[in-house]
Amino acid sequence: MNRWTAATAATAFSACLALGAVPVAPAAQAAAGNGRCSSSSPSFSGSFIQPDLVDRWTDAQLSAEMRVLKKACITEEVIQWTADTGASPATRIYPSSQAPQSTKTDVVGRILAAAHRQGIKVYLGLQTNNDWWTNYANDQAWLDEQAAYANELANDLWKRYGSYKGTLAGWYLSFEVDNFNFPSSTTWDRMRSFYRTVGAHLDHLTPGKPVVISPFYNTSGGLTASQWSTMWRDILLGSHVDVVALQDGVGAGHATTDQLPAWFGATRMAIEKASPTTQLWADTETFIPASTGFLSMPTAQVVADMRAERPYVDRYWSFSYDHYYSPVVVNPAYDKTYRAYLKSGHVDSQAPSAPSALTATASDPQTVRLQWQGASDNIGVTRYRIYRDGTLMRQLPVADQQKAGASVSYSDAQLDPGKSYMYTVVAEDAAGNSSASSEPATATLGDAPSTPVNLSQGRGYACSLPGSSSYPDDGTKLTDGRLGTTTFTDPAWTGRLTGSPFSCAVDLGAVSTVNEVSTRWLQDPGTGIVLPSSVVVEVSTDGQNYTPLGSMAAPSLGDQKAVATFRLINVSAVARFVRLTVNPTGAGWSFTDELEVRQQASS
């Protein structure tokens, strides 16, 4: 998912103008007549869901998910997209005579059927396209093509699924406008025209069913809150947009809770001036970026964000209860904690017990194995925070309800040989309550052989996936010896946007003895740049037949900006070609700057 990466390419500067509040009375969040859902506390009425998740589920799992939503008082499901016009050819997630199907199952039909049984309404997202993140509104012809496609797609969806007219609640346009890439009135005019073209068609096709958009902002730069208000006042005037579901950006690291009033207030002000009948909903984020991909946001933070948004919004959607709070996907304690909040109006405040009996053992010159007795909690422990030398280096999710006192282990890999490391562990529950720290444990690693000869310096290589045009790989960057900083715009980095494995093979020029392989990667979770989960190394003498040499697991760096070196040491192979296969952590950016093949001494 790339909904938070678009605004990161501009130079950051500090700008946030607090605007006067324009309070509105929040709409009822609960299903009528359901006492369990009549809480006056802010709560979700809807959730986004992505097609890939549903496509992996059985019908039983999908039905269970709809029951989960109903118990959490969520009565609206938003399918984030139903087609991908960036694929070649364009694809859809349901059977259609207009385009090939990218999913194994009819995702749209299955969601509609399961939602109908539970009385849940469904919003249909139209197309996604990764080209949006480079084109935006700068290419009028491309935007016109997308508007025409959206209308045809809506026709096809309505023709096929119109029998669910009582379940189909409205439409969602998935192209996300931000405060970095729409700097001029020309781009505003183009977006207003796009929304008018698509919105008018949807209004005619399905009268009374709202059209929803979900823009986002990043407080690190771009348009200020005041300028954002001006932009949306211009775009919304006559645009046929019925709902602005504004992403709050807290989970993505684009904003803090105390910045929400300025941006939601600015958006509300734009609506009041341009289109008073348009509603403002909060698209409240329920995730946090982490080195392992994305983790569930603690409930106390989610609730704090909703309360900050409350004076300005008519209701709340989540991004995403299905992905980050549902017991079908994550630890059931998140759902239990949220539903307990719905019932009482208060978030659980009881902290877990401290982890105990922590041990640290060096298992090889690069790895320390940690083991401890798990903590207990009144609802459930959901993650362990592991600290190395006092710095958070890993948040380890607990997948299910863990038995109190059960043994937990973790291997800290890709460390520096010959060094000593001290560890402590803290337990956390779904609400975000933290335990006291465990007692510390220390381990000392053995030494590794010296490998002074860099066989790959200046050598040619080929990658199965080219670098992005914004962060290109010209065929020299990975072997030129130039190292990137922690700033992703540093030209030493090459970037690839993918969730699928890719490989790079370097030609050493002659058959040589290989004793070490290493590669450097950037981590910047706030911009969607994460480390690979692993890098597999293979060797060959002819460039055709490869044999495995080893695998490098991702180092644990915490969730801050950092550079990581993956090293495969203590190996011996005869090869001319060395191939690295990169396994991404998930869909997102992979940034690398160097690939080194080393030797203990000249041979």
Provide a brief overview of the structure:
The chain is 22% helix and 30% strand.
Descriptive tags:
disordered N terminus, Jelly Rolls, 30 strands, TIM Barrel, Immunoglobulin-like, five-stranded antiparallel sheet, 3 domains, alpha/beta, 603 residues, eight-stranded parallel β-barrel, 11 helices, globular
What's the structural blueprint in terms of helices and strands?
Layout: E1 46-49, H1 51-56, H2 59-71, E2 76-79, E3 83-84, E4 91-92, H3 107-118, E5 121-125, E6 127-128, H4 132-135, H5 140-161, E7 168-173, H6 185-205, E8 211-213, H7 225-236, E9 243-247, H8 260-274, E10 279-285, E11 287-290, E12 293-296, H9 299-309, E13 315-319, H10 321-324, H11 332-344, E14 356-364, E15 367-373, E16 381-388, E17 391-397, E18 407-412, E19 420-429, E20 441-444, E21 453-454, E22 461-463, E23 494-498, E24 502-514, E25 516-523, E26 534-540, E27 547-553, E28 562-568, E29 573-583, E30 588-599
Parallel strand pairs: 1-2, 1-13, 2-5, 3-6, 5-7, 7-8, 8-9, 9-10, 10-13
Antiparallel strand pairs: 3-4, 11-12, 14-15, 15-18, 16-17, 16-19, 19-20, 21-30, 22-24, 23-30, 24-29, 25-28, 25-30, 26-27, 26-29
